[in-house]
Amino acid sequence: MVTIADVARHAGVSSSTVSYVLSGKRAISEETRRRVRSSVQVLGYHPNAGARALAARRSHIIALMVPLRTDVYVPVMMEIAIAVTTAARQHGYDVLLITNDEGPDGVRRIAASGLADGLILMDVELDDERIPVLRAQGTQATLIGLADDARGVSCVDHDFVAAGALCADHLADLGHREIAFIGYGSGVYHRHAGYAERTLAGFRDRAGQRGLRFLHRTCEGTYESTAGTLARVLADRPGTTGFVVQNEGAIGPLLTLLRTSGRTVPEDVSVIALCQDQLAEQFAPRLTAVTGSAQELGRVAVEQIVGRLATSSDGGRPDDDRALLTPALTVRESTGPAPLLP
Amino acid sequence: MVTIADVARHAGVSSSTVSYVLSGKRAISEETRRRVRSSVQVLGYHPNAGARALAARRSHIIALMVPLRTDVYVPVMMEIAIAVTTAARQHGYDVLLITNDEGPDGVRRIAASGLADGLILMDVELDDERIPVLRAQGTQATLIGLADDARGVSCVDHDFVAAGALCADHLADLGHREIAFIGYGSGVYHRHAGYAERTLAGFRDRAGQRGLRFLHRTCEGTYESTAGTLARVLADRPGTTGFVVQNEGAIGPLLTLLRTSGRTVPEDVSVIALCQDQLAEQFAPRLTAVTGSAQELGRVAVEQIVGRLATSSDGGRPDDDRALLTPALTVRESTGPAPLLP
DNA sequence: TTGTAGGCGTTATCAA
DNA sequence: TTGATAACGCCTACAA
C-alpha cells in the first residue's frame, strides 16, 4: 500500500504538504503542487479511507436506505438509487446501501459508528420511526417522501398533488366528464403511502373544480384484478370515457381489456397514466402520461444532504429544506377528445 | 461520541478487554463479558468504523458495482442488489454502491483506498477491462456473470444454457415441432451479453437433439417491435406452435398480438417465458416460465467474496469458485399439448 | 484471565 | 510557503 509518507518522500516534501495539496486547504506554491501531483500519479496514491475518516471525522459516505418491499415500482427505486450514487460521486461522496429492515437501529448503527456522514431515506412513512432517531442523534438526513413531522431533516418528493391535478385538467380540457381513477392496491392506501394519497387528493380537488364526475377504485395490478376493477367501473358508470391509471401493473391489462370490450383508445375512451415515460412509450397506443423525474429526485436529495453536511461541519444549523418537483404532462396517443354523446 | 475508552471506564476494565469481548478473539470470564456487554448497551457504543478499518486493515465493506445501462431488466438488478445487501449484513459487512461508469479507475480507487475489502461486479462482459485491474491489485472479487478469463476471481451466474434447454425440452415433451425464440434486441447480442447468448445456445442444442425446428428473432421489447417480429415469424413459419420469449418487454405485446390474430393460448400456441415468476404471474394466461433466483445469486456472490476475504486474510490463496445456479421450470397456463395437425 | 502500549495513515494545529 | 507533531479510536502483540 502506498501512503502519504511515500508520496512525500517521492516529492521531497513533508506529508502535511501532500495533504494540503490534496485538500486545497492552504496556499501551496505552484512548483510544489506540481511535484506532489506528479508523485501522486506516478505512485498511484489513494488516501486511505479509514485513516481519513478517523482524522477528519467525516467518512465522505452517504447512506441510502431503500425499501425491501416490492409493491413500490422497482425500476423507479433503482433509478433513484443510481441517480443518488452518481450525484454523490460528483460531490466527492460514496453511497452505502442499507435496507429498510434494519429500521431505527440501522440508523443508529450507521450514525454512531461514523460509517456515514448523513442518510437519505426512501419510502418514508408519514409517521416514521426513524425520524426521531435522526433528531436524537443529530444526524443529518434527507427524506425522499414527506413525513408529518420533518423537523431536523430535509425532504424532497414529486408534487403528486400537482400530478393528480394535471390529469384532471387534461381530461377536462378534452371534454371528458366521467372519469375513473385506477389506483394501487388497497394496502398501499391503508399504509397511507404519501404518493398514492396525494395524487388522489390532487386529482379529486381539481376534478371537483372542473365539474368532473369520478370514482376511484383500487387494483392489485394483476390481469384478474384489473379485469374485476374495470368490470365494476363499467357497471357503476357506463358513461365513463376517461381513465387515470396510477398502477404500473394495471396498464397493460387495462388496455387489453378495453380493446376486448370493444372500446377503442382514444376514440372511445382516453387513458392517461401516472408512470415513467419509458414505460408509457412501451404500449400501443403510446400513453399520455404524467411523470416526475427520478433522476432529479436523486440529484436534489444529494444536494440537500451535502448542503446540510457542509453547513453543519461549519458549525451552522442547516435549514430544513422542502422541495417538491413539478411533474410534466406528455401528450401521446392514448388521449383524445371525449366522444360525442350517443 | 462514545468510545471504547468510555465503555472500558464504565465497565471497570481496560479498553483491550472491551475490544476482545466484542471481537471474541480471546477468552474472557463470564462475569467480565457480562459487565462489558451491559456497558456497551447502556452507553449505546458502536465502534468507530474509520478507526476500526485503520487498525484492523479491513473496512468490512463490500463494493457492489452496478450497471448504469437499463437494457437489463431493472427489477432483477435491484433484487440482486438487495439480496447482496441483506446477505452481506448477515456476515457483518456493509455494501457500497458504485456505478459501472467509474470503470477500471473506480475499481482502483475503491481497492487502493481500502474503502472496500472486496468487490462484486454485475453486468460483466466477456472481455471485461476491470478484471485485469483486480488481478493487478490483488483485490478480492466476485463476478455476477461469466468472463473469458476469470483467473483470480470467483463467479456466479444462472445456468442459462440449462434454462434454454429446459424450454426446448418442455415444448418438445408437449409435442411441439416448430418453435420461435423471441429474444432481446440485437444490441444485446452484439454486446455478447452472456445471458442472451448462452440461453440461445442451450436452447439451440437441445432443440437439435429433440428434433425441433426453430428460428430466433431479436425484438426491442416495444409493442411495434414485437408486432413486426411476430409478423415475420408467422410469415416465415406459419406452422409455429411454440414461442420461447426471453424479453420482458415483449411478453405483454406478444400475448395481445396472438389473441388479436385469432390464436388462443395455450390451445393453438404455447408460450414459455424466461423471466421472473412474479412477472409471469401477472399475465393472462399466467405464463409457464423458466426462472433463476436473483436472491440466490446475490447470496452466493456474497458467500464467495466473504470466503475469499477470509482465506486471504488468513494468508491463504482463495479458490476461484465458479457457481452456476440451476434454473427451475414452473408450468402454468400458457403451455399445453401441440394442436393436432389440421 | 487481563492490562499496557505501539502503530494503523490522515488531518490539522502550532511553529518556523 | 512549508514542516514537525499531536491527536483521531481501535486492534493486537507482548507482558503479567
Walk me through the structure.
The structure is a homodimer. With about 350 residues, chain A is of the alpha/beta class. Helix content of chain A is about 45%, strand content about 15%. The first copy, chain A, contains 14 helices and 12 strands. The first copy, chain A, has a 6-stranded parallel β-sheet, sandwiched between helices. In chain A, strands 7-6-8-9-10-12 form a 6-stranded mixed β-sheet. In chain A, strand 9, helix 13 (about 275-280) and strand 10 (about 290) form a beta-alpha-beta unit. In chain A, helix 2 (about 15-25) packs across helix 3 and helix 8 packs parallel to helix 10. The longest helix of chain A has 20 residues, at about 295-315. The termini of chain A are far apart. The model of chain A has no long low-confidence stretch (mean pLDDT about 95). At the A-B interface, helix 4, strand 1, helix 5, strand 2 and helix 6 of A face helix 4, strand 1, helix 5, strand 2 and helix 6 of B. Chains A, B: GO terms for molecular function: DNA binding. Chains A, B: This is LacI family DNA-binding transcriptional regulator. Chains A, B: It comes from Lentzea sokolovensis.
